[in-house]
Automatic annotation (TrEMBL):
EC number: 1.8.5.2
GO molecular function: thiosulfate dehydrogenase (quinone) activity
Superkingdom: Bacteria
Keywords tagged on the record: Membrane, Oxidoreductase, Transmembrane, Transmembrane helix
Transmembrane stretches, start-end: 21-42, 113-130, 142-165
Class of the enzyme per the UniProt entry, highest EC level: oxidoreductase
Name used for this protein in its record: Thiosulfate dehydrogenase [quinone] large subunit
Keyword hit for Membrane: yes
Amino acid sequence: MAATINKPAIRMHAAAATRRPVDYVWALTRIAIGWIFLWAFLDKTFGWGFATPAKRAWLEGGSPTTGFLKGTGENALGGFFGALAGQAWVDWLFMAGLLGVGAALVLGVGTRVAAAAGGLMLLLMWAAELPLTTNPFMDDHIVYAIVLVGLAMANAGATLGLGNLPIVQRHALLK
């Protein structure tokens, strides 16, 4: 009897053997930014006292968007963003975004979708803060959005993540 060879396992092994140091840098960057999104979700949900006090936790009836969006009132688009503050659908969409983007980036699955969704969230937060006070247009939201594009382009989920699973490789939406 001839031995059968598991081709996906060989592909994954061969891919791991061809990793470059920059692949690990992108992977660690992916995990770090994913953790930023995931931590924001956890702190806002449970009020662990880092950015959100316990009494303002989402589980205690607090609104995860009110603090930031109410603070935009004097900004160029403050009227628009301020009107969104505290609305249940905005809170749910924001929290789903934080959780989805964070989990996808940490796990390395759906990195492209997470990069697009996270980039959109970051651009909206950037727009809410206009005009910027320390730089005419550039801030950390834009830098993170650019890095998310790089993560997607570098296929960063394939290193130190689940991006090499056969199901992920077969379905572009999961990459």
